Amino acid sequence: MTDTTRTTQVAIIGGGIMGVAAQFQLAENGWTDTILFEKAELTSGSTWHAAGQIAHAVGSRIAGWINKTSIETYKRVEAETGQSIGWHEVGGFRFATTDDEVDWMKSIMGVGKLLDLPMELVGPDEVAKGNPFYRTSDIKAAVQTFEDGHIDPSGVTMALAAATRARGAKIERHNRVIGASRKGGMWLLKTEKGDVLAEHVVIAAGSYANQVGEWFGLKIPSVSCLHHYLVTDTVPEFLDRPELPVMRDNAFGGYIRQEQKSGLIGIYEGHVCPTVWEMPQGAPWAAENELFEADYDSIGDFLMVAFDKMPILAELGIKRVVRGAITHTPDGGMLVGPSGAPNVWLSCGSSIGLAWGGGAGKVLADWMVHGETQINTRGMDPRRYGDFSTDSFIVERTKDEFMRRHDTPCPGKQFESLRPLNRHPLYDRLAAKGAVFGEVAGWERPRYFGQVGEVEQIGWGHQNWHENALAEAKATRAAAGVIDLCAFAQFEITGKDAGALLDRLSANKIPARDGRISLNHLLTDKGRFETEITIWRIAEDRYFTGSAIARSKPDFDWIKSHIRPDEDVQMTNLSSDWGMLALSGPASRRIMAELTEADLSNAAFPWLSGQEIKVAGIPCHALRVSFVGELGWELHAPLDRIAELYDALFDAGAKHGLVDLGSYAFNGMRMEKAYRASGELTTDVGPFDVGLDRFVRTEGRDFVGKDALLARRPDWQLYYAELHADDIDIHGGEPVLLDGKPVGLTTSGGYGYTVGKSLGWLFVRNGTPPEGLSVQILNRSIPVTVHDDAIFDPQNLRPRSED
Questions:
Q1: What is the mean pLDDT of the segment spanning 359-383?
Q2: Mean pLDDT, to the nearest integer, of 742-755?
Q3: Number of domains forming the structure of the chain
């Protein structure tokens, strides 16, 4: 019997804008042996009913780059195919009616500067010129854009499909994929028209992503939420004038624009998030071009505000209501990149599919074909969700995200739903001491300590907690501080080949002696950062690693994926079962000495070493390191004993001046020491871009990414700078300017509380002089001074202290 199974390099499941755009971008990169499977007609899921807006006035460089890339891609395809994409380049306004919103508008101007997107910060008079029918009495400021607008969802998808077919790729409509299994290193897809073997699979299944993901052992954090927009009868005032710009207004949580000669009003309710097809049942396979009955009771109040904003629409009839399902994720970001299953990729979870599709497709294609992307991908990496992502969390947090969609995204803003998600044993103790928490990968971590029940003020400038963080930092530098870092990725890697595995993954040499610690960067094949980990060699066949909690799942999977079949290596993920307290400050040794029989002297327990010791009778992995640049230890212990350890430290430390330390003070002290963090170690750069040459050891050894790292001339250089401002700090993502022109961007920053300076890291194009630079924050240019070394303890004497 003849085997009729077909083969393909890439199978794409889903024929909406995300799937079709991904297939087009793969073809652009030379991968044309692809088949896209759509169970019905292209766009028949969520794409066809989208309003189709694409904005330039967005809050981050990544979002701006994605949207800009989408527009450029769509225009290029229209020119190539001659097929109309229905592009209306009408520009738009995004409004501010509160002081926080004004600051947001000012921050958006920085995104425009970075990406060369034409925009202006204007007042109500300019808004009235752009749309004389809009009530401007409460508008304090607005961002006006000029080269964005809205697009025909079906038209642009069909144009992309035509361009893709012209490159030799295949699209099969009315052929549903009904299952998948692993076969001989490939994926066997069962379709209604026969089996297909695929080397790679892209899940671009929109509202069906959850069900499809189950075939590959994946839990995809995506929920179908219902969104309304309404189209009015013909507006007489629109008949003899140019098309109006798109108006985006948080006052009613949505947008108003012109649709032909009618008005279009889109609303995101801020009080409820209706969902359909929730996990685990999912969307019915028979659904096609599905719409839902309008709920005027839900949107009525918002609709009345919209009519008040644009009164010429108020007396008109509503000729069409579109209430369709669109996918959202718990943090609002899309899911683009590797899934965690071998050669299974995601391009889904997109709540703004038309705006994101072309850019997301490029990110995915670059990642799949070249192993690297042009822009930092961490915010869209599907693996960013950890084990805390239960079905309940995915649904409830996504509802929260939907309802907060039009909140002002001030720095420090957090979701409140399901908090605290993970209540570890220290939570109640810290809350009773006035801890104000922030959520980190499902865990609660103190940001600062204030009054019990205090609610954190948020905003771009210095807030009321600035003084609290100042006191914590000064007390730690003077005596000692302890911070709860129980949210931490901790792995134990054992076996006779454990050292060989870590050594070939690490740009730096791993520790050569038992007890020693090294800082190591694991690189991609292209010599870019995969992650940063600390490696402690306990014994020749036993290692302990630590890294940021958000990297727990991807780091564990990535390291494990490099174990060779014939190697003796075992990995244990301790992240959920172990906790960590970081004790830092000149009194640290004196406090520890009262709790352990271990010799803590420099000779017996030197800096950058670790030991298994008992502290207050509790077995601990004690590592002599400090991310704030002080004498100190990280104390890793079983989570069920971490509260006992914490109490013992304060019982012994009270007379030595021990204080609780929050993450704001912790970050400020990190900046004083010029330590790099995740903001500097992104997926689009490597060690030589950020001045970490001393952690790359190439002599007589090989490691993943070595050849690419050595062959590539760094595109960037990283400057450590002092911002000359008294009331605001660098947050990351702001433009760096030279003579008023952008030459780079900030990556992270904070206030150095014990040196009295605002500090930050600046990525600038290689060769940029350090003199004459400034940073654009809230639309003002603030000078910076670049420093060659850390502001605090540049000789690094304090961590090595013998006192």
A1: 93
A2: 97
A3: 3
Q: Are 335 and 329 in contact (CB under 8 A)?
A: yes
Structure-block tokens of residue 746: 């900030």
- The Cα 363–Cα 372 span in angstroms is 9
Cβ neighbours of residue 195 closer than 8 Å, sequence gap 6 or more: 4, 5, 6, 188, 189
CB atoms within 10 A of CB 2: 4
Query: How many CB atoms are closer than 10 A to CB 6?
Result: 16
- Under 8 Å CB-to-CB from 29, ≥6 apart: which residues? 365, 366, 369, 370
Q: What is the pLDDT of residues 388-434, one digit of tens each?
A: 889 999 999 999 999 998 899 999 999 989 999 888 899 999 999 99
Q: Taking a C-beta distance cutoff of 8 angstroms, is the pair 360, 347 a contact? A: yes
Is the pLDDT reported for residue 1 higher than 80?
no
- pLDDT tens readout for residues 628-647: 999 999 999 999 999 999 99
Is the pLDDT assigned to residue 2 strictly greater than 70? Answer: no
The C-alpha atoms of residue 95 and residue 408 are separated, in whole angstroms, by 11
Instruction: Say whether both 194 and 316 belong to one domain.
Output: yes
DSSP secondary structure letter of residue 728? B
* Number of residues that make up the chain: 803
Q: What are phi and psi of 786, to 5 degrees?
A: -85, 130
CB 711 within 8 A of CB 526: no
Distance CA(150)–CA(67), nearest Å, equals 12
Same domain, yes or no: 119 and 262: yes
User: Quick count: other Cβ atoms within 10 Å of Cβ 388?
Assistant: 17
The residue with tokens 């599709």 is: 357
Same domain, 445 and 498: no
Phi, psi torsion values for 470, nearest 5 degrees: -60, -45
Say what percent of the chain tops pLDDT 90: 94
* Residue finishing a domain among 433, 452, 471: 452
Amino acid code (one letter) for 44: S
Contact predicate 538/544, CB 8 Å: yes
DSSP secondary structure string for all residues of 512-573: SSTTBEEEEEEE-TTS-EEEEEEEEEEETTEEEEEEEGGGHHHHHHHHHHT--TT---EEEE
Please state, in angstroms and rounded to a whole number, the distance separating the CA atoms of residues 180 and 386: 24
CA 318 to centroid of chain Cα atoms: 39
CA 356, chain centre distance (Å):
15
Indicate whether 16 belongs to any domain.
yes
Q: Are residues 21 and 141 in the same domain?
A: yes
Q: Where are the beta strands (DSSP E) in 342-474?
A: 344-348, 435-440, 443-449
The verdict on residue 317 lying in a domain is yes
User: CATH code at 548?
Assistant: 3.30.70.1400
**pTM tops 0.85:** yes
Domain that holds residue 512: 485-570+684-703
Identity of the residue numbered 249: D
